[in-house]
Every structure is written in C-alpha cells, then in structure tokens.
Amino acid sequence: MLGLISAAIAPGLALLSYFYLKDQYETEPFSMVFRTFLFGALLVFPIMFIQYVFEEEQVFTSHFVSAFLSSSMLEEFFKWFILLIIIYPHVHFDEPYDGIVYGAAVSLGFATLENIFYLLTLGIEHALGRALFPVSSHALFGVIMGYYLGKGKFSKTSKGKWLCLSLATPFLLHGTYDYILLTLENWLLFIVPFMIFLWWMGLKKAKQARILSAKYNQSLEDTRTNYG
C-alpha cells in the first residue's frame, strides 16, 4: 500500500518541484504553494460527484460533449476559479512567473489525488502510464493557465483578454486530450505527439514567464534607483 501511494504521489511532487525551483527571483512561500496544492486536491470530490451524476443521468451522450464539457470545462473551470479568487489577488502573486507555480500547484493537487484513487482501484501497474499522460497533462494545463493569469495581472492593457485565454486555452487543450482518448482506437499514436506538443508549449510558456518576470523585476529596480 505504501509503495502504491508513493507511486501515485511522486510524479505530481516531482513536476511541482521542477516548476517551483525554476522561479529565479523571489521564491514563493512553501506554505502558500502547498495550500494551493491542497485546494486542487479538494476539488476532486465535488468534480467527481458532478461527473458521476452526469454519467448516471446520461446527461452527455456525445463523446465530443463529454470530453469538452463533463471533463475539460468542469475541471479547468474549477481550477481557474480557485486561482482567480484566492491566488490572483494575493500579495505573494507578485511577478508573472508566480502564475506558473500556482497554476501547476492547483492542477497537480487535483491530478495527484485523482491518481491515488485510480491506482487504488486498478493497481500499481498503471503508475507509469498515469505519470506520463494524465498527471503530466494536468501539470501542463496548469502551467499554461498560470502563464496567462500572470500575464494578465502584470499587463497594463488587455487584462480581460489574458484572463479569458487563461481559461480558454487549457480548456481546449484538455478537451482535445480527452477526445483523443475517448474516440480513437489507436489513441497512443495520437496522444504521444499531442503530449510532445503540450510539453513544448508548456515549457515555452514557462520560459516566457521567466522573461516577463526578469523585465518586471528590472523595471522595479530601475524605479527604486530613480526615486530612491
């Protein structure tokens, strides 16, 4: 049992540590990141309940609608809502890259508890596949969501556009991911290149966020110098 729990938790913690340690300026308080991770984990319960009701009542009969609404929109909206209401206005969200950290944290909290339930049900032999696909994809959806939230918070214009993209982009990517799994018999042939694209996009957004943070911190330093 301990080995199974460890296998379920390890991928999420490893991915979160990676993005957390890439913060080159003021590292986020561990307590705040852990709290965000817990918020994400707690989302599993209401989302699983709503999805169970949808399934039992056969609300969605189309694979397309199920992938994009029952799964993608429901999960990404709740994660986005937590970030927007609790994290976005917080004093510790003080540079663009912080969106990456908190986006990854809330998504990996969700993915980690979901992974524990999945492996408890189907066995540890699924641990590697779960780490490579569902856990990693959730992390990258969170990174992309966090990038746009960070860009929106620290942009002087077009804040509404960036906030809309922070939900719309992970929603479309997540829906596409689930649609591939639900509809294609040889899904592995399509999900591997999709995951490569997702990693490319997620790492690109993380790099862009670090550049934005560097510019933002430099501008703060210049302001202090000019008015100090």
TrEMBL record:
The transmembrane residues are 6-21, 33-54, 66-88, 100-120, 132-150, 186-203
Q: Name one Pfam family in it.
A: PrsW-protease
**Superkingdom of this protein's organism:** Bacteria
Question: Which InterPro entries does this entry report, sorted A to Z?
Answer: Peptidase_PrsW_arch/bac, PrsW
Query: Which terms in the Gene Ontology molecular function aspect does this entry carry?
Result: metallopeptidase activity
For membrane topology, the record states: Multi-pass membrane protein
Keywords linked to the UniProt accession: Cell membrane, Hydrolase, Membrane, Metalloprotease, Protease, Transmembrane, Transmembrane helix
Q: Where in the cell is it found?
A: Cell membrane
Stated EC number for the protein is 3.4.-.-
Primary location:
membrane
Function statement: Involved in the degradation of specific anti-sigma factors.
| Family designation | Belongs to the protease PrsW family.
Q: Under which name does UniProt file this protein? A: Protease PrsW
Q: Which species is this UniProt entry from? A: Cytobacillus stercorigallinarum
Ranked from the top, the taxonomy reads:
Bacteria, Bacillati, Bacillota, Bacilli, Bacillales
